[in-house]
């Protein structure tokens, strides 16, 4: 397949979580591939930084301040993006938060907040994008963000892992439902990636955690946001035109499920 299969010129993409980390790297890479990118997140300042990176590289970006757990607001923002740039061809639902607590100490409010952002926020983004694509007759691609946490038991990460497992089920179900419309739905399940989310630990604990991941990886390293952005680009592009309902695992070989 020629490299032009990765060309997104003339297409519109919407990226949640675009203010930093994997979301920012994805927004920048999709723009470099030619897409007009709508960048959504809660921090106007950080979104402006993402837009500057895209502008400086000669791309086209729009920013939208939104909490993805607010269904009405997110759907309104997606509708505004469609009005500005035409039908969406790509949705990358990347926004997420982290919470750590032992199962026996997990409170309702902890679980509710993580599910609201990491699962419901993805669901709302998928719903808005799918409706836009169906209405416009677009052969679109929806990419969700799962996690390596779905493949292993991680003490303290019940809320996060449960939400990401729900994202996997959403991805597969939506792929089955949207296939007749020629809309593909896939998930990316990253391993340990250096992002603001993984930097939440103090320096010493961070170093120990990364060292443990390095030892587990056949590649002997942890990931960078760009590693995941390239996985998203592949799923967003025509290079993956026969791929749907799949979970792509760029994790350095830490997990190798059948």
Give a description of the structure.
- This protein has 258 residues and is of the alpha/beta class.
- The protein has one domain (3-248): 3-Layer(aba) Sandwich (Rossmann fold).
- It has helices spanning 21-32, 44-56, 71-85, 108-136, 158-178, 203-216, 225-236, and strands at 12-16, 36-41, 60-65, 90-93, 141-145, 184-188, 247-248.
- The chain has a seven-stranded parallel β-sheet with strand order 3-2-1-4-5-6-7, sandwiched between helices.
- Strand 4 (90-93), helix 4 (108-136) and strand 5 form a beta-alpha-beta unit.
- The protein starts with 11 loop residues before the first strand and ends in a 10-residue tail after the last strand.
- The model has no long low-confidence stretch (mean pLDDT 94).
Furnish the topology, listing elements before pairings.
Blueprint: E1 12-16, H1 21-32, E2 36-41, H2 44-56, E3 60-65, H3 71-85, E4 90-93, H4 108-136, E5 141-145, H5 158-178, E6 184-188, H6 203-216, H7 225-236, E7 247-248
Parallel strand pairs: 1-2, 1-4, 2-3, 4-5, 5-6, 6-7
Helix pairs in contact: 1-2, 1-7, 3-4, 4-5
Organism: Streptomyces pratisoli
Protein name: SDR family NAD(P)-dependent oxidoreductase
């Amino acid at each position: 397949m020629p490299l032009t299969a990765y060309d997104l010129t003339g297409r519109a993409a919407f990226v949640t979580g675009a203010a930093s980390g994997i979301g920012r790297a994805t927004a920048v890479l999709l723009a470099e591939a030619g897409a007009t990118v709508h960048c959504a997140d809660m921090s106007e300042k950080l979104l402006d930084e993402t837009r500057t990176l895209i502008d400086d590289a000669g791309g086209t970006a729009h920013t939208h301040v939104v909490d993805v757990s607010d269904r009405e607001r997110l759907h309104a923002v997606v509708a505004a993006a469609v009005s500005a740039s035409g039908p969406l061809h790509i949705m990358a639902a990347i926004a997420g938060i982290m919470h750590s607590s032992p199962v026996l100490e997990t409170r309702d409010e902890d679980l509710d907040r993580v599910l609201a952002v990491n699962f419901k926020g993805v669901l709302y983004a998928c719903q808005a994008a799918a409706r836009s694509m169906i209405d416009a007759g677009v052969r679109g691609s929806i990419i969700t963000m799962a996690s390596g946490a779905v493949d292993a038991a991680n003490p303290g990460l019940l809320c996060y892992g449960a939400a990401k497992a729900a994202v996997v089920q959403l991805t597969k179900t939506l792929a089955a439902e949207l296939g007749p419309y020629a809309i593909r739905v896939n998930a990316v399940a990253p391993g340990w990636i250096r992002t603001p989310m993984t930097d939440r630990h103090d320096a010493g604990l961070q170093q120990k955690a990364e060292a443990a991941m390095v030892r587990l990886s056949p590649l002997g390293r942890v990931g960078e946001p760009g590693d995941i952005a390239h996985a998203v680009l592949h799923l967003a592009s025509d290079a993956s035109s026969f791929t749907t309902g799949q979970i792509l695992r760029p994790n350095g070989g830490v997990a190798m499920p059948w």
